[in-house]
## 1
Amino acid sequence: MDKSLLHKELFSNIKTTGAITFSSKALVSKMLSYAELKGAKTIVELGGGDGSITRGIVEKMDKDADLYVFEISQKFCDSLKKEFPQNNIHIICDSASNFDNHINGSKPDVIFSSLPFSLIPKEEREKIYSVSSQKLNGQGPFIQICYSYLLKFQFAKHFSKVKASWTLKNFPPAFIMVCN
């Protein structure tokens, strides 16, 4: 799918994408800097979108790692499947709240998310937080891009440590929450 069609999908489903543009390379790079992908065997991405974050993960992950990308837009899923046909990259068109049903009992070493939690109904949002915090392998982080610092308090209910950083090199500027 070409970029113009991806942008059309972004705008026509703003309630589920929660964004007005895709993540910048600078934001993706900063987000990835908070995770150690060397040696990670299971990586989960919640909200694959146009693949901005997925591309960054694929560049840095080990060749024998599995990446599970969850996205609810069928158009985005179709585009992601074309771009990432590798056997170890699993594009799943389902809600992030169901990710545990798709990872074959694995415990993710890291979870990346760009989900628009401010727009997700509370019950589903709480389920995503809970499943994410319970299923992470050891001290692996849950790393979230968001546009409101107030989300830090929601994450703090499920993770013992939440560190926030800020980047201006994105439109709009964004927070990165690193939760352990």
## 2
Amino acid sequence: MALLRIDFYSRYLKRNVMLTAVIPADKMDGEKLAKRRRGPYRTVYLLHGLFGRDVDWIDRTHVVETAEARDVAVIMPSGEDGLYLDKPEIDEWHGKFISEELVDFTRRLLPLSAKREDTALAGISIGAYTAVINGLLRPDRFGSIISLSGAFMRNRVLEAVESHSPRKKRYYERFFGDLDTVIGSEKDYVALIDRFRDNPDLPRPRFYGACGEHDNLCQNNRDVVQLLRDAGFDVTYHEPDIGAHEWPFWNAWIDCALDWYAPGEMRPSTAEIDYSALTSLRPPQDQQ
């Protein structure tokens, strides 16, 4: 497994961006290089959470080992505030950076598949919100979307708009821009899901989601899953009765997500929790 740190200039963000890439190009089989294909690889673009960095995934999970076992490339950009949304009113194009520039750049640089079915967008917390938004905006590019403990903040934006607290409004304006324009826009996942109801010919990404019952965002995730299913999306969702909004949960469930994305024989995980057992904790109706 090759672990790369890349620093490149983004024309959309008008600054240099750091990213970490995991490429199974030198995968080992004992003491020898494994006789496996050398690309083009299935790829997961993996986003961190609020105030995180690209290396969070390397420092806090064993995603490298899991990606190697799955023969999957993982691209992890550093997103500062963790919310990649376009703000055209101030000429900031964080969403286009993810769905256009980052994908195009990494495909030119690395042996990645350009097929829609081989390209996934994933994230945790607020990064999961971002993955859902940008994945729905570019269903031609992303065939799979993975959301772990998604921070779906539509209701909080509505509360902030109606609030008399300037501090609360400024906090959400940092992420969304003008709050009065969010609902019904390309930053609103409800509006984006409705587009697919009105346009049945649009390609539909398949979804994988997980959120622990002890996470205070659990109900938000249930609501989004129901919206997606009602609109005809293929959704696999797990809600284990253990785990909160924390890295131990994401460490285990990124394994589950990659297993769903690229199923096949896999060596035992180094996670403290047996993730294969976690996926069977909920009854069959949660797998619909």
## 3
Amino acid sequence: MQEVRDELQELAVAERVARRLSEQARAEAEQPVTPPAGQVAGRAVLTVPRLERGMVETVLPADYQRIMDVMRRADGPVMVKQACGELGISLEPTRSEAMRAKLNRLTERGRLRKLADGKFTTTL
């Protein structure tokens, strides 16, 4: 009889452990994924992860999320200057080249497509 009680107690403990592990896994799954940080010239910078199946755009830094929003709302392919205008960014060469670099980065990571005429469009 004592063996049965011991086994029941072990099962109760195992059930509590399984419940805790399940709650922990659920909590981890609900936490937003932060993009990996990198280092450039000794400064921490956010990197743009490659597009993978099931990956949401919230892993992108905020400015890249805004760019993706502009690209999705556009009626067709977007020029760099159009993207700058939509985001309220100055059209001076340094600013537009920085935007071009971001658009190219999104293209390299599989989130945008660059057309032969230099315009950008969403991949979907």
